[in-house]
């Protein structure tokens, strides 16, 4: 750049202080670069924030009451207890939760009994799959895991028998 700083000494109260000053064109260029850098950093942080949260702007609703649960499934491979809900009450699955299963057994009557995490690990709602790695319930810290996806119930109930779902 060719701009050389110049120094001078100031005597204040018997003490000498050295000050370094740069010529004006060099300072203006630094301010211009600082503004550009600030703008780039601001834009980058905004875009990064959108990408980490995802583009789904609708907030995830809290887990519905058990009374709206339509069905429950157990995924043996992933060890997940999956609950299917109908928020609209029309019998269509529109909200799904999946909890980690620690242990499962059969009751004296032959019914499955699952010991699960208190809060879900995954949620499916509004064509979006959400992840809650802290498993602390819906409180705003959930992350979008995958967008434009629906829960694939055919993986768990793929067949029909005499027109009835298996």
Write the topology of this structure.
Layout: E1 6-12, E2 15-21, H1 24-53, E3 69-75, E4 80-85, E5 95-106, E6 112-116, E7 122-125, E8 128-131, E9 143-147, E10 160-161, E11 164-165
Describe the structure.
The chain folds into two domains: 6-53; 66-165, no CATH class. Helices cover 18% and strands 37% of the residues. The strands form three sheets. Strands 3, 4, 5, 6, 7, 8 and 9 form a seven-stranded antiparallel beta sheet that branches. The protein has one helix and eleven strands. With 166 residues, it is an alpha+beta fold. The longest helix has 30 residues, at 24-53. Residues 50-57 have low confidence and may be disordered. Strand 3 and strand 4 (80-85) form a beta hairpin.
Provide key terms for this protein:
166 residues; 2 domains; 11 strands; elongated; 1 helix; alpha+beta; two-stranded antiparallel ribbon; 7-stranded antiparallel sheet
Bin the helical content.
10-25%
- β-strand percent reads 35-45%
Largest sheet: 7 strands, antiparallel
Low-confidence stretches: 50-57
Q: Structural class, judged by helices and strands?
A: alpha+beta
End-to-end distance: 78 Å
Q: What does the average pLDDT come to?
A: 77
| Strands, total number | 11
The H/E string reads EEHEEEEEEEEE
User: Can you count the helices?
Assistant: 1
Overall domain count: 2
Radius of gyration based on Cα positions: 30 Å
Q: State the shape.
A: elongated
């Amino acid at each position: 750049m060719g701009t050389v700083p110049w120094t001078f000494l100031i005597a204040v109260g018997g003490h000498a202080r050295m000050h370094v000053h740069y010529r004006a064109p060099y300072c203006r260029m630094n301010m211009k670069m600082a503004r550009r850098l600030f703008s780039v950093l601001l834009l980058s942080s905004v875009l990064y924030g959108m990408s980490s949260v995802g583009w789904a702007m609708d907030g995830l609703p809290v887990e519905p009451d058990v009374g709206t649960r339509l069905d429950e499934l157990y995924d043996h491979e992933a060890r997940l207890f999956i609950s299917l809900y109908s928020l609209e009450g029309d019998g269509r699955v529109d909200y799904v939760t999946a909890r980690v299963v620690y242990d499962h057994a059969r009751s004296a009557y032959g019914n499955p009994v699952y010991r699960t995490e208190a809060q879900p690990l995954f949620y499916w709602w509004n064509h979006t799959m959400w992840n809650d790695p802290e498993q602390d319930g819906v409180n705003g810290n959930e992350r979008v895991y995958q967008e434009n996806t629906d829960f694939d119930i055919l993986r768990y109930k793929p067949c029909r028998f005499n027109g009835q779902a298996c």
